[in-house]
Design goal:
The structure is a single chain. The chain is of the alpha/beta class. The protein has two domains: 170 residues, Rossmann fold; 186 residues, Dehydroquinate synthase-like - alpha domain (Dehydroquinate synthase-like, alpha domain, Up-down Bundle). The protein is 44% helix and 19% strand. The protein has twelve helices and 13 strands. The longest helix is centred in the middle third of the chain and has 21 residues. The chain starts with 16 loop residues before the first strand and ends in a 7-residue tail after the last strand. The structure holds nicotinamide-adenine-dinucleotide and glycine. Glycine binds next to loops.
Length: 381
């Protein structure tokens, strides 16, 4: 796939769409618009004593100067922590770099973290904010499509552990989310596809008409039509805000956001973090979840085909890796956070636009994996 590395567009406007997230852990706005980076200072509280931009070298090279300039109107010290880029670095060792920096600068409780990057940066910066001096404020500034439509919203923060994805973390809400749609111009094609998997997910779990819209517009979305992408981001943020505002800490409803994730997290961990993009694993996981839904809750086979076709159309894989066989798959899936008393839970679809969370017989899971795994794509291949 080609890397579409055009320079970020400079046309800044102050037109924004606002979505509100309202949880016990905080009520905050998501601002969506072209050029929002230049208005970042609007989201920083008046009593801010210092700003720490947590980012990575890739993102900082693209947007660092713009963001620093936008924040300079606050007239407080601004410093930058650059974490190594990539899912493979989403761990406690890397997290500690943020604490080293902040403690080294003696930053107080009114310092604010600005998470500038994709979901990896957002999850780590948010987790750091949740525990630095027992909790300081942070602003999410997502720069990937996946982070704009999903990870920056809702307050899930975490790092990975070798034994499981996102296993060490906290629910901790940002004070604002600033989504600049211009930043997507520099995103590699593969990352656009990965983000679109999470967009399709909202249609499958909440709204059959939106799923149809994704089917009809898959090519335009993949080609980054700005109006379509903006519509997808707005709609996704509205869906996610609706869910997390009802169930911030995943006591029940929020689990529906995990469609495709039981399989997807196993792919990510089993292949080694960073081999498959999170969104790719979720896209493929949704195909497997649809196939399992046909077996255990009567999803029509025509719907399974629609799911597979749309995942393919947005550019995500539809065949899963075999890993080291069924036992490894089951071990990894048993490590999922939805597992209860050793029983793996899947988000399944009786119909498109409607989901249930339930267990499934092992032989049905095995049959689905047998039918959808690419035997040549093993962990050791
Ligand atoms: P990522 O953060 O690794 O970003 C992908 C790549 O794009 C990185 O190399 C990054 O440097 C680069 N990049 C970022 N913005 C760019 C831009 N504008 N132009 C060019 N390159 C850019 O990956 P991601 O897909 O954004 O996030 C995946 C992570 O999000 C996973 O760790 C996943 O677990 C997490 N996640 C969290 C939640 C949540 O609710 N907290 C939800 C979904 C996913
Ligand atoms: N991405 C799943 C969640 O936020 O709950």
């Amino acid at each position: 796939m080609s890397n579409n590395q055009a320079a970020p567009a400079a046309n800044a406007t102050n037109t924004k769409h606002v979505v509100t997230v309202d949880t016990a852990g905080g009520r905050y706005p998501i601002h969506i618009g072209a050029g929002r980076l230049t208005h970042l200072a609007e989201s920083l509280p008046a009593d801010t004593t210092a700003v720490v931009i947590v980012t990575n070298p890739t993102v900082f090279a693209l947007f660092g100067a713009l963001v620093k300039k936008a924040l300079s109107q606050l007239t407080v010290p601004i410093s930058v922590v650059e974490l190594p880029d990539g899912e493979a670095h989403k761990d406690l060792t890397t997290l500690n770099l943020i604490f080293d920096h902040m403690l080294g600068k003696q930053l107080d409780r009114r310092a604010v973290i600005v998470a500038l990057g994709g979901g990896v940066i957002g999850d780590m910066a948010g987790f750091a904010a949740s525990v630095y001096m027992r909790g300081i404020r942070f602003v999410q500034v997502p720069t990937t499509l996946l982070a704009q439509v999903d990870s920056s919203v809702g307050g899930k923060t975490a790092v990975n552990h070798p034994l499981g994805k996102n296993m060490i973390g906290a629910f901790y809400q940002p004070i604002a989310v600033e989504i600049d749609t211009n930043v997507l111009t520099s995103l590699p094609d593969r990352e656009i596809s990965a983000g679109l998997a999470e967009v399709v997910k909202y249609g499958l779990i909440m709204d059959g008409d939106f799923f149809k819209w994704c089917e009809d517009n898959a090519q335009g979305l993949r080609a980054r039509d700005p109006a379509l992408l903006t519509q997808a981001i707005r709609q996704s943020c509205e869906f996610k805000a609706e869910v997390v505002s009802q169930d911030e800490r995943e006591g029940g409803l929020r689990a529906i956001l995990n469609l495709g994730h039981t399989f997807g997290h196993a792919i990510e961990a089993g292949m080694g973090y960073g081999q498959w993009l999170h969104g790719e694993a979720v896209g493929c996981g949704m195909v497997l979840a649809a196939a399992l839904s046909e077996k255990v809750c009567d999803l029509p086979s025509t719907s399974v085909t629609r799911v597979k076709n749309v995942v393919h159309a947005i550019g995500c894989p539809t065949a899963a890796p075999a890993l080291n066989g069924f036992e490894q798959w089951m071990t990894l899936m048993r490590g999922d956070k939805k597992t209860q008393a050793g029983e793996i839970k899947f988000v399944l679809m009786p119909k498109i636009g409607q989901v249930i969370v339930r267990s499934a017989p092992a032989d049905a899971v095995q049959a689905v994996l047998k039918a959808h795994c690419d035997a040549t794509d093993t962990k050791t291949a």
